[in-house]
């Protein structure tokens, strides 16, 4: 079955960086568009970025544009999210999502001094 496992979250100071990873299994990863989304405490799921199947044509939500970068390695069935210049408002659970269905368990990112 579809399995998505995120990792790379943690505690980081404002202005710092983190790189999230999402390892996919149970489906043909290179055939699917993939996204990252997040959910802060008490808020709904917020879409952040999308990657086309070949990694081109990335799109970003305005709130992260210029700070976050999505990429993928189809040979490793892995999706990445490089997050730079992190802010306290970036604190949330981050999820990897497959278009057509499937979401990982999430990885927590906390931005705090």
Largest beta sheet, briefly? 6 strands, mixed
Shape: globular
The beta-strand count equals 10
What is the CA-CA span between the terminal residues? 40 Å
Radius of gyration: 13 Å
Order of strands across the biggest sheet? 2-10-9-4-5-6
Strand content: over 45%
In percent, how helical is the residue content?
Answer: under 10%
Spans where pLDDT lies below 50 across 5 or more residues: none
Mean pLDDT: 97
In sequence order, what are the helices and strands, one letter per element?
A: EEEEEEEEEE
Number of DSSP helices? Answer: 0
* Structural classification: mainly beta
Short structural description:
With 113 residues, the chain is mostly beta strands. The chain has strands at 3-7, 10-12, 18-25, 34-39, 45-51, 59-60, 68-73, 78-83, 92-98, 107-111.
Chain-wise SSE layout:
Elements: E1 3-7, E2 10-12, E3 18-25, E4 34-39, E5 45-51, E6 59-60, E7 68-73, E8 78-83, E9 92-98, E10 107-111
Parallel strand pairs: 2-10
Antiparallel strand pairs: 1-3, 3-8, 4-5, 4-9, 5-6, 7-8, 9-10
């Amino acid at each position: 079955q579809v399995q998505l496992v995120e990792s790379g979250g943690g505690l980081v100071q404002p202005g710092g960086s983190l790189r999230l990873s999402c390892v996919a299994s149970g489906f043909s990863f290179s055939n699917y568009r993939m996204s990252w989304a997040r959910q802060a405490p008490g808020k709904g799921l917020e879409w952040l970025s999308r990657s086309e199947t070949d990694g081109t044509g990335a799109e970003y939500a305005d709130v992260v544009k210029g700070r976050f970068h999505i990429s993928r390695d189809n040979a490793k069935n892995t999706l990445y999210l490089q997050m730079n210049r992190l802010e306290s408002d970036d604190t949330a659970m981050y999820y990897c999502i497959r278009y057509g269905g499937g979401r990982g368990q999430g990885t927590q990112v906390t931005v705090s001094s």
